[in-house]
Amino acid sequence: MMALKWIGSMLVLFSAGGFGIWSARQWRERLRLLEKLRQMIYFLKGEITYSHAPLAEALERVGKRETGPLGKLFTAAAEGICRQEGESLQEIWRREVQALSSPKIRLPLTEEDLEQLAGLGEHLGYLDVDMQERTLKLYLEQLDISIEYLRTNQREKCRLYTSLGIMGGMFLVIVMY
Fold first, then answer.
1. Whole-number Å distance between alpha carbons of 70 and 62
2. Considering its fold, how many domains does the chain have in total?
3. In-domain check, residue 76
4. Which residues contact 122 (CB under 8 A, 6 or more apart)?
5. Which residue segment(s) compose the domain that 141 sits in?
6. Residue 130: how many CB atoms within 10 A of its CB?
7. Within-domain flag for 65
8. What's the pTM?
9. Tens of pLDDT along 1-10?
10. N or C: which end of the chain has fewer CB within 10 A?
11. Which residue spans traverse the membrane (predicted)?
C-alpha cells in the first residue's frame, strides 16, 4: 500500500513538473513562430514592393520558402486566389488563418496573434502597392511589440512556469499525504 502512495506521488510530481516544462517550451515556440512570421512578412513586403509581383504569386513564393504551417498558410492563400471561386482575399485569408487554430495543427499562437494575422488579410489585395506596404509595416510593428514582450519576459516566465510546475506537484504530494 505504501509503495502505491510513493508511485502515485512520483507520478503527480513528474506530471506537474512536465506541465511546467511544457508551458515554458510553448512560450519559446511562440516566440520562434512569431519571429519566423515576421521574416515571412518582410519577404512578402519585398515581393510586393520591389518585384511588383501579383499578390498570389508573392504569397506563393514566400510560402515555398517555409515548410511549416506558416508556409502552408501562404501557399494555401495563393491557391485560393488562383482558384477564382468568387471569394475575396479577406475570406480566403481568414479561412486559412482559422485552419491554423485547429487542434490538429496545434500552434502555440494565442487568439490575439491569430486575430492580428487574420486582420492582415483585410487590407491586402485590393489596395495599391503603397497601401499594401503600409499595411504590412503596421502589422510588422504589431509583431515587433509582441516579439519584444516575449523576448524580454522569456527568461523569467520560462523559469516561473518550470518552478510552478514542480512546486505545484510538490504541494499536491504534500496535501495528498
1. 10
2. 1
3. yes
4. 90, 93
5. 12-176
6. 9
7. yes
8. 0.86
9. 788 888 999 9
10. N
11. 6-24, 158-176
